[in-house]
């Protein structure tokens, strides 16, 4: 089994890199876990209190559960992945079954802040992007997908996203085996990553993967 961890700041282009990795891996052999699914349930807080939750701090993530699920997948077991809503800041009572596969791909902004998660990953990837590009992507995502207006998004960026990135996320770049500058637009870095994955899986470089 191959475990790939993909980290990087909010809006760095992790999703694009994940999709490009999926394009070069064998079909039906990848289990995907997102750190976002493991945000702690805030249903015990009032709606106003939920608005002040710092989602860019490691304490917001239930890393114990994420680690347990990774270990269960390693054993060949199916896990029940949580469903988290950014709109309500709570977990759904429902879950999503995830079966064990040859490759486990885990992604999230705070992934490498947890030493146990770092150690369990066979390949650690850090997706890098300039701060202004990340901010533009955050504005677009938060206003379209998460029901926030531009003023709320900018305030959150200045109050938590930017300082937490500098304190927690950027320093974890040193743990990465591969750094992907410019996110999914960096075809050279993606190619290097693809070849590394092929070698880890014992596939030849010219073997058809799909």
Overall description:
The protein is α/β, with parallel strands linked by helices. It has a single domain (2-201), classed as 3-Layer(aba) Sandwich (Rossmann fold). It is 40% helix and 20% strand. The protein is built from seven helices and seven strands; from the N terminus they run βαβααβββαβααβα. It has helices at 14-24, 47-50, 63-74, 115-120, 131-145, 150-169, 187-201; strands spanning 2-8, 30-34, 79-85, 90-98, 103-107, 123-128, 178-181. The strands form two sheets. A five-stranded parallel sheet has the order 2-5-1-6-7, with helices on both faces. Strands 3-4 form a two-stranded antiparallel ribbon. β3 and β4 (90-98) form a beta hairpin. The radius of gyration is 17 Å and the shape is globular. The relative contact order is 0.23.
Short description:
By secondary structure, the protein is of the alpha/beta class.
Quaternary structure state of the chains depicted: single chain
Mean pLDDT: 85
Mind summarizing the main beta sheet? 5 strands, parallel
Task: Tell me the Rg in angstroms.
Answer: 17 Å
CATH topology: Rossmann fold
Number of strands: 7
Low-confidence stretches: 204-210
User: DSSP helix count?
Assistant: 7
Q: Quick one: CATH superfamily? A: P-loop containing nucleotide triphosphate hydrolases
What does the overall shape look like?
globular
Helix percent reads 25-40%
Instruction: Walk across the major sheet and give the strand order.
Output: 2-5-1-6-7
Q: Would you tell me the structural class of the helices and strands?
A: alpha/beta
Annotated CATH architecture: 3-Layer(aba) Sandwich
| First and last CA, distance | 19 Å
């Amino acid at each position: 089994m191959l475990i790939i961890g993909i980290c990087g700041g909010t809006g760095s282009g992790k999703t694009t890199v994940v999709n490009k990795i999926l394009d070069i891996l064998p079909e039906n052999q990848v289990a995907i876990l997102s750190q976002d699914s493991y945000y702690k349930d805030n249903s015990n807080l009032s709606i106003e209190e939920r608005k002040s939750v710092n989602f860019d701090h490691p304490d917001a993530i239930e890393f114990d559960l994420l680690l347990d699920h990774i270990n269960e997948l390693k054993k060949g077991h199916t896990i029940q992945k949580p469903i988290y809503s950014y709109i309500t800041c709570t977990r759904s009572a429902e879950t999503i079954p995830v079966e064990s596969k040859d490759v486990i791909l885990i992604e999230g902004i705070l992934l490498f802040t947890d030493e146990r998660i770092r150690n369990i990953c066979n390949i650690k990837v850090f997706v890098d992007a300039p701060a202004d590009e990340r901010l533009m992507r955050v504005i677009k995502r938060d206003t379209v997908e998460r029901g926030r207006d531009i003023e709320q998004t900018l305030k959150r960026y200045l109050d938590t996203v930017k300082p937490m990135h500098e304190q927690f996320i950027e320093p974890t770049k040193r743990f990465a085996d591969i750094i992907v500058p410019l996110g999914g637009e960096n075809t050279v870095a993606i190619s290097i990553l693809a070849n590394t994955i092929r070698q880890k899986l014992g596939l030849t470089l010219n073997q058809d993967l799909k």
